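Reminder to self: tokens first, then the designed residues, so the page reads top to bottom the way the pipeline ran.
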């Protein structure tokens, strides 16, 4: 079970200097969050001032405000008011700029190479009674609230209840399989798997990012 701890991520400045980004995941893994050598990337950005967004030619973007009230995003001259937890898809090569009428915001970005991968972001409300599984090709980010994650049981197994382990960074990025739930801190991400799929329980909101490979028809 793999957990990406937000507190351990290094902030990197945007290519145009207008903000900072923390990369949660990318493929293939790049040396820098901004070098564009990847086919897809999931990141969280802090936007503290109005200005132009970086362009990503050949890419498609899905942006979601996850902290703050409102982002006014202008894409190719058309203004789009983006409210919290409402994902918005647009071309990475479009001329885009932001305004912050209600103050600073933090956003979740999913960028994928057009025609090769398709990124999706869904916002769900967690339950303390029904666990939310995270499957292969997915990344689940705790946006707010209190939650814990456990590896799912193998067929025929029955998971025993246990107390959550503390979210103090003592669990490594690739935690050993265990029945004990692990607490998640805000913006921590759980990497999905089809083997003992991680299951998240709690109260609050979760962003579930799916990255699908685009199938090409053969002539």
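Designed residues (219 positions):
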């Amino acid at each position: 079970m793999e957990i990406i701890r937000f507190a351990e991520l290094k902030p990197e400045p945007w290519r145009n200097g207008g903000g900072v980004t923390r990369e949660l995941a990318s493929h293939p893994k790049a040396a820098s969050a901004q070098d564009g050598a990847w086919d897809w990337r999931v990141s969280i950005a802090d936007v503290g001032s109005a200005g132009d967004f970086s362009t990503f030619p050949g890419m498609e973007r899905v942006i979601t405000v996850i902290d703050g009230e409102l982002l006014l995003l202008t894409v190719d001259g058309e203004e789009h008011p983006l409210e919290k937890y409402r994902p918005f898809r647009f071309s990475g090569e479009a001329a885009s700029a932001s305004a912050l009428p209600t103050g600073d915001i933090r956003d979740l970005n999913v960028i994928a190479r057009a025609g090769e991968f398709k990124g999706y972001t869904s916002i769900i409300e967690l339950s303390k009674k029904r666990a939310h599984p995270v499957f292969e090709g997915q990344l689940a980010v705790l946006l707010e609230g209190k939650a814990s994650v456990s590896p799912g049981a193998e067929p025929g197994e029955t998971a025993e209840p246990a107390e959550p382990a503390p979210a103090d960074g003592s669990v490594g990025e690739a935690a050993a399989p265990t029945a004990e739930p692990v607490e998640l801190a805000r913006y921590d991400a759980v990497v999905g798997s089809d083997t003992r799929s991680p299951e998240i329980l709690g109260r609050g909101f979760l962003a579930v990012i799916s990255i699908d490979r685009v199938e090409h028809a053969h002539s």
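Residues 124 and 182 are 20 Å apart (CA to CA).
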